[in-house]
Amino acid sequence: MYQEIILDHYKHPRGAGVLDRPLGEAHHVNPTCGDEVTVQIGLDPSGGLLIGYLGQGCSISQASASVMAEALTGRTPADAWPIREAFLELMHGRGTVEPDEEILGDGVAFAGVAKYPARVKCALLAWMALQDAAIKAGLAGAGPEDTISEDAQADGGDEEGRAAP
Amino acid sequence: MLDVARIRKDFPVLERTVRGGQPLVYLDSGATSQKPTSVLDAERHFYENANAGVHRGAHALAEEATDAYESARSRIAGFVGARSEDIVFTKNATEALNLAAYAFSNATALAQHEAAGIDPRFVLRPGDSVVVTEMEHHANLVPWQEACRKTGATLRWLPLTDDGRLDLRAVDDVIDRTTKVVSVVHQSNILGTINPVRLIMDRARQVGAIGVVDACQSIPHMPVSVGELGADLVAWSGHKMLGPTGIGMLWGSAEILDAMPPFLTGGSMIEMVRMEGSTFAAPPQKFEAGTPMVAQAVGLAAAVDYLEAVGMEEIREHEHGLTAYALHALSQVPGVRVIGPQDAVDRGSAISFVVAGLHPHDVGQVLDSRGVAVRVGHHCAWPTCRRFDVPATTRISPYLYNDESDIDAAVDGIRAAQAFFGTGAQHAAPGLS
Ligand SMILES: Cc1ncc(COP(=O)(O)O)c(C=O)c1O
Fold first, then answer.
1. Residue B387, class by beta-carbon neighbours within 10 Å (0-12 exposed, 13-18 middle, 19+ buried)?
2. Contact B361 A119 (CB under 8 A)
3. Which run of H or E residues covers position B210?
4. A56 close to B (CB below 8 A)
5. How far is it, in rounded angstroms, from Cα A104 to Cα A93?
């Protein structure tokens, strides 16, 4: 489960920190373990995503935030959201989904995590916060509601996607 | 001395292997205990021979089922030195504590419309206080927060010392004439601390407050006579004491149970029902609405028999030895910090710790990969974690079927996690951020 890539992102998080002018921000906690992350979203002058994050938690949740920032920063929202979709699909697959490195980049390292239901929440924490931040920023793209309800369904409607006050 | 090898033979699940054929080392009894064969057999025997609704029905099975249910109640009552009539069955300790908290919010709501028959001891008003401690399980915190929200009363708590004990100097200040109820955990599920509940309950009595004890982690691990705690109400769960899930207990003094309004209402708990209104049965039936958990009661009675045969004093001694052993072993691992009392005095076997530079989830994962089952997280005691400035902890919680080799397996696993993440003795200083 602990791929080298995960450990590397954990020990050397990419792009961690806050944005100067975020367009949206969301703080999510995992109520079962207290892991938390704040994700910010913004746009650079050429329309590419800026992502900031701060968090504390286990190697999986922190590495996942780093992988997310690395994979999505600089992409247009239209390019970024399919990557998020692919990551969600991988994590909800209970180990049956074959990850596509072309799309996911370092995200493929989380394939093993999908086999541990208790850790899937950790891996998704930052990605769920990103979705909320994107909605607040008006960057969630077409049909954000669809995306959310699909997530809620896959998670059996538990607390994972809920923001802390 | 407990014959752990012999005891383990009674627990089929302990024979199994996990994560690629490794023997299971179960150190999560604080969450729920494993069940001996005799408990499983008792439930099965009940279903195969006497299953029927209780307290209703006019046939042989109904009679036998009622007998089985009520004799289970009396064996469970006997285990904690109580009278049968004073034991209410609930689905778990959380429900038992809610039953207690709702007695206050319900009485407060009723008192707005009907003065007669509402015991003023249960009526909460703005200016009144409800007292808990900073080491409560959420089950003994959130229901009281809600009772305060509904009534305008104020929640107060007894603070903790840095070594994880109640700061007893605060007792006389925090519990005062405004206090209507004091609800305190007997043995903390996260810190392991055994609290001097008698002293606190005596103070509650002195100011005229109702005293409640959460005995979830004490009754399974030491001899407890509920009457001696000095409380009015005592709550605990069956599943942490070798019994099935789905059954919890609330003990109350006869006088208090009689004075309390019911919690859940419906069938089985009534005396007389008319369209205009109803009257209620005497306790404990008053608090047992609907078809109860008969098989679970029967199973729990078998668990009580098992515990008594081993001996609660022996179990306490055994766990005390394991606790001292584990505290010492953990103190030998650089970077490990135990959250809670550092010695085995007035302390149970649940031991929480953090490992420098390692998140509890990662410690738990490495332990799990070695077959060692522990709990990680905030252990439903989030404010307690905050008090000690840790996001979460890893917790081992041994029971009568564990021995020193299980502790060794956990400690070896911690060292392995440190080696894996490169945070061993040499690297203990810089945390991974
Ligand atoms: C101290 C304490 N109180 C209350 C509870 C709640 O018990 P249950 O979940 O069985 O209702 C627990 C166990 O989780 C506990 O350890």
1. middle
2. yes
3. strand B210-214
4. yes
5. 15
Given a cut of 50, is residue B8 above it in pLDDT?
Answer: yes
Distance in angstroms (rounded) separating the CA atoms of residues B288 and B278? 15
Chain A residue closest in CA terms to B375:
A33
Q: What's the pLDDT score for residue B292?
A: 95
Cβ–Cβ below 8 Å for A11 and B385 = no
Instruction: Spell out a b/e string for A83-94, using b for 16 or more CB atoms within 10 Å of the CB, else e.
Output: bbebbbbbbbbe
Q: Which residues of B41-66 are buried (b: 16+ CB within 10 A; e: fewer)?
A: ebbeebeeebebbbbeeeeeebebbb
* Assigned fold of A2-141: Sufe protein. Chain: A (3.90.1010)
* Span A70-89, pLDDT tens digits: 999 999 999 999 999 999 99
Interface test with B, best of A12, A33, A122 (most B CBs within 10 A): A33
* ipTM > 0.85 for the complex: no
The 3-state secondary structure of chain A, one letter per residue: CCCHHHHHHHHCCCCCECCCCCCEEEEEEECCCCEEEEEEEEECCCCCEEEEEEEECCHHHHHHHHHHHHHHCCCCHHHHHHHHHHHHHHHCCCCCCCCCHHHHHHHHHHHCHHHCHHHHHHHHHHHHHHHHHHHHHCCCCCCHHHHHHHHHHHCCCCHHHCECC
| Cα B161 to Cα B169: distance, rounded to the nearest angstrom | 10
What is the spatial distance between Cα B273 and Cα B210, in angstroms, rounded to a whole number?
30
pTM for the whole thing? 0.90
Token pair listed for B423 = 């945070």
- Atom 14, ligand 1: residue with shortest CA distance: B31
**What residues of chain A score a pLDDT lower than 50?**
142-165
Q: Hey, is the C-beta of B377 within 8 angstroms of any chain A C-beta? A: yes
Nearest to A129 by CA among A36, A17, A27: A27
* Helix/strand/coil for B123: coil
Structural domain spans, chain A: 2-141
Q: Tokens standing for B185?
A: 């955990």
Q: Domains of chain B (ranges plus CATH)? A: 4-30+311-427 (3.90.1150.10), 43-307 (3.40.640.10)
A33 touches chain B (CB under 8 A): yes
Of B369, B377, B432, the CB nearest to A34: B377
pLDDT tens string B88-104: 999 999 999 999 999 99
- A156 Cβ under 8 Å from any chain B Cβ: no
Q: What is the pLDDT of residue B424?
A: 65
Partner-chain contact B391 A11, CB within 8 Å:
no
Digit-coded pLDDT (tens) for B29-51: 999 999 999 999 999 999 999 99
As a whole number of angstroms, the distance between CA B141 and CA B40 comes to 33
